[in-house]
């Protein structure tokens, strides 16, 4: 056997080094989150500052088009280099954002006829 003959490489488990508890995570309040949540938050929040610039263009879904955002296919390419996250509906993302843009996405996942009611709480999850 390799380990009896001294041919096996010794293992170093770094027993003298404490395990990193990930207590210095850059998103406030998320130090104890699971790996997947931290991965997604790391795509959204800047690691150096802990802040983010989110470009939200989901307003047209329930309020009609917003002044200055009538043509997302023209506006988004102009601002995409300056933002960290794009927030929009599935249709707006599909028609106006290059899938290879490399930006985090905050997808609006609700649907319904909320414009018919005074409050906007009559929506359902659509994903």
Automatic annotation (TrEMBL):
Gene3D superfamilies: Aldolase class I. InterPro entries: Aldolase_TIM, DeoC/FbaB_aldolase. It comes from the Bacteria. SUPFAM superfamilies: Aldolase. PANTHER family: 3-HYDROXY-5-PHOSPHONOOXYPENTANE-2,4-DIONE THIOLASE (PTHR47916:SF1), FRUCTOSE-BISPHOSPHATE ALDOLASE CLASS 1 (PTHR47916). This is 3-hydroxy-5-phosphonooxypentane-2,4-dione thiolase LsrF. It comes from Paenibacillus albiflavus.
């Amino acid at each position: 056997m390799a380990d009896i003959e001294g041919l096996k490489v010794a293992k170093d488990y770094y027993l003298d080094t404490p395990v990193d508890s990930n207590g210095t995570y850059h998103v406030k309040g998320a130090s104890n989150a699971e790996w997947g949540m931290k991965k997604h938050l790391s795509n959204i929040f800047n690691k150096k500052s802990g802040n983010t610039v989110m470009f939200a263009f989901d307003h047209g879904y329930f309020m009609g088009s917003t002044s200055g955002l009538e043509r997302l296919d023209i506006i988004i390419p102009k601002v995409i280099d300056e933002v960290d996250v794009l927030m929009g509906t599935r249709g707006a993302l599909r028609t106006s954002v290059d899938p290879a843009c490399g930006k985090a996405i905050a997808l609006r996942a609700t649907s319904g006829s909320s414009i018919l009611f005074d409050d906007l709480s009559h929506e359902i999850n659509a994903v």
